[in-house]
Amino acid sequence: MYNIIIGMNRKCIHMLTIGMDLTIETDRNGMVKKYKSKVADIQQDKLYIYYPLSVTDNKPAFLPSGSKVIISFISGDSNVFLFESKVLGMQKSAVTLVELYLPEEKYFNRVQRREHVRVIAGVNVVLDFPNSGQKFKSVTSDISAGGCAVIVPPDVKVQPAESGTIELSILMESGEQFQLTFTCEVIRIFTKNKLDLMSLKYIEPTPSEQQLLTRFCFERQLSDRKKGLYI
């Protein structure tokens, strides 16, 4: 079901915090389904989460007791961790919570990635380069939490090392949409598959912005792996 899990991190249990976003995946007879939730409480070897909702249609999930699940989350330093768990039952009070088994920290596994995962994705962007007087809309050809490659329209002339701003419209699998604006720097101009592209680096994005982009890239990476797509 998952072939991207490597290594161990004995501190990652401390990365789980109340209110943290979680992704829950189930595999029933080869049918993988993905849900979203948040951490409600942590008690020794038990993790309590709010009732999961499908990332595709926001419908509540039915997770029978004993079901095996994979939990993933993005830590504060933008690393992605996964661990196996099991549904222990429901806790009904003012809000219904799902009770999950929380394994020892040695069973938390970090997803292998380069400095920043780069994924194929067409994200709408608006770029502004004041020095050359160029402001235009375009689409990315690939993106990461550290930068992206953008299609250069025929009438745009921008030089390497030029600085400007980039505004990205990020659409998550859940349907949530975010607008992110960064200062950026042109790293290089190149041609690939008959398209003129510019490689951009974000300048000093905040940790929360990088975490959001990491989450977007992680979701796209899992989706691409299931489709057999690789960059």
Automatic annotation (TrEMBL):
Residues 112-219 form the PilZ domain. InterPro entries: PilZ_domain, T3SS_YcgR_PilZN. Signal peptide: none annotated. Gene3D superfamilies: predicted glycosyltransferase like domains. GO terms for molecular function: cyclic-di-GMP binding. Residues 18-103 form the Type III secretion system flagellar brake protein YcgR PilZN domain. It comes from the Bacteria. This is Pilus assembly protein PilZ. The lineage of its organism: Bacteria, Bacillati, Bacillota, Bacilli, Bacillales.
